[in-house]
């Protein structure tokens, strides 16, 4: 599945004396299975772009098209279904439900899709094992470190078998080791599952690991290049 963005513009407060152009006539394409970093300073528009790609926000002008589906024309109900079935989200604040265990946090999205309890529990357990949390299934977020909570968030994002994972500043609150571990996990899953990963970031540790880097400044794409130093990473993830 290919994401195609055409003339994408987002203006906040458009009918006031102080409109803000978060995105300006953005054109780009992202192919299935890419591992992409969207970089730029705070306020450059990178988070707004991810929100548009994931159907969380609506543009002022332009469109986002995935194969033949123009998601920017969907109704709110259709957008909810699209996000539930096609997109996984990873947020910098983890956004885990505090009263649920790691296993229950991952199971939850699959149950929304209609999976049985046994199906969702089996897949959630396997995903948490893949991200190195096989011995932490029944711990609540407060019992996990920041890096471990972000691993739960990765497993949750992958639970519904999404075509795309949108990761908004996923390493912002992590130390160097947790960042490296998390990137190992996501790169491994990208290569083994063919899931597209798109990051918004200004973290050089993330940018150096991406296969492709898109630079946004002041709402416009100023650079789009492949990373010549990109290296595959298929080694197992340690517990």
Number of strands: 10
Mean pLDDT: 91
Terminal CA distance reads 32 Å
- Decide which structural class fits the backbone: alpha/beta
Largest sheet: 6 strands, mixed
Helix content: 25-40%
How does this model look, in words?
- The chain is α/β, with parallel strands linked by helices and 239 residues long.
- Helix content is 33%, strand content 26%.
- The chain is built from seven helices and ten strands.
- The protein has helices at residues 46-53, 76-86, 102-112, 117-130, 146-158, 176-193, 204-207; strands spanning 3-12, 20-30, 35-39, 61-66, 69-70, 87-91, 164-168, 196-201, 212-217, 220-226.
- The strands form two sheets. A six-stranded mixed beta sheet has the order 6-7-8-3-9-10, with helices on both faces. A four-stranded antiparallel beta sheet has the order 2-1-4-5, with helices on one face.
- Strand 1 (3-12) and strand 2 form a beta hairpin.
- The mean pLDDT is 91.
Helix/strand layout:
Elements: E1 3-12, E2 20-30, E3 35-39, H1 46-53, E4 61-66, E5 69-70, H2 76-86, E6 87-91, H3 102-112, H4 117-130, H5 146-158, E7 164-168, H6 176-193, E8 196-201, H7 204-207, E9 212-217, E10 220-226
Parallel strand pairs: 3-8, 3-9, 6-7, 7-8
Antiparallel strand pairs: 1-2, 1-4, 4-5, 9-10
Helix pairs in contact: 3-4, 3-5, 4-5, 5-6
How do you describe this structure in short?
Belongs to the ABC transporter superfamily. Macrolide exporter (TC 3.A.1.122) family. It is built from seven helices and ten strands.
């Amino acid at each position: 599945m290919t994401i195609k963005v055409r003339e994408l513009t987002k203006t906040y407060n458009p009918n006031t004396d102080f409109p803000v152009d978060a995105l300006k006539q953005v054109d780009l394409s992202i192919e299935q299975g890419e591992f992409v970093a969207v970089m730029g300073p705070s306020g450059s528009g990178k988070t707004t772009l991810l929100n548009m790609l994931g159907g969380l926000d609506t543009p002022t002008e332009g469109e986002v098209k995935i194969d033949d589906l123009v998601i920017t024309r969907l109704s709110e109900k259709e957008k909810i279904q699209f996000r539930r079935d096609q997109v996984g989200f990873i947020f910098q604040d983890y956004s885990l439900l505090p009263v649920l265990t790691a296993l229950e946090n991952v199971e939850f999205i699959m149950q929304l899709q209609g999976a049985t309890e046994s199906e969702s529990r089996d897949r959630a357990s396997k995903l948490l094992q893949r991200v190195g949390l096989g011995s932490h299934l029944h711990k609540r977020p407060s019992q996990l470190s920041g890096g471990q909570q972000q691993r739960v968030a990765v497993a949750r994002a992958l639970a519904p078998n999404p075509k795309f994972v949108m990761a908004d500043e996923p390493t912002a609150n992590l130390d160097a080791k947790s960042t490296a571990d998390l990137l190992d996990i996501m790169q491994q899953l990208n290569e083994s599952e063919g899931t597209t990963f798109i990051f918004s970031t200004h973290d050089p540790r993330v940018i150096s690991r991406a296969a492709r880097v898109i630079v946004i400044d002041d709402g416009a794409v100023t650079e789009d290049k492949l990373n010549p130093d990109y290296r595959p990473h298929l080694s197992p993830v340690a517990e």
